[in-house]
Design goal:
228 residues; elongated
Amino acid sequence: MEAKISDVFFDLDHTLWDFEKNSALAFQTVLTKHKIEVDIDLFVSHYVPINLKYWELYRVDKITQTQLRYGRLKDTFDLLSYEIEDEKIFFLSDEYIHYLPQFNHLFEGTIEILEYLKPKYNLHIITNGFHEIQSNKLKNSNIGGYFQTITNSESAGVKKPNPRIFEYAITSAKAKKENSIMIGDCIEADVKGALNFGLDAILFNECNAEVPENIKHINNLLALKKYL
């Protein structure tokens, strides 16, 4: 007989909070404000995979936060053959971080599923994002009140998929892993990280990517009702 779920842990970016849409709007604001003469749509299309690559490196501690924030912009400008000084890149990076939490599009069904889950379960966040930025996202998008605990990589001292961040989150929530489940968009960080720790997991597969047969997955957040 399966253990009864009492605690549900969500990733934030790319799972509840629509990172790509909000990121594009932040860049549109920053690049326009500072008269950076590039095609913004083209800039964003280059930035998205570059940012993903840098986050993968950051997740396994191969680069620092500063290298992440500088490198992803530097590489994007280089692809566009746009000459820009390093000092300006650091400045634009800070501006982007400032504006990013001010755009708060959520994935379809986010509020409805949180309203559905809140009376039934204790809800929590586990994110590799940075404390101040993630706190602002939760506050500005009006979903912070749904969650009892927020675990980020800065407070835990490690990033998903390291089992210690899941241990930290479970302990903070006063939960038991056999009564908990993790929901996130990244197979490596969220799903395999949780499963390797002994925590059940569901992949939010919004882009309908191919998924291994043994991985539970949903394409829309409201589909969580089938499991919870």
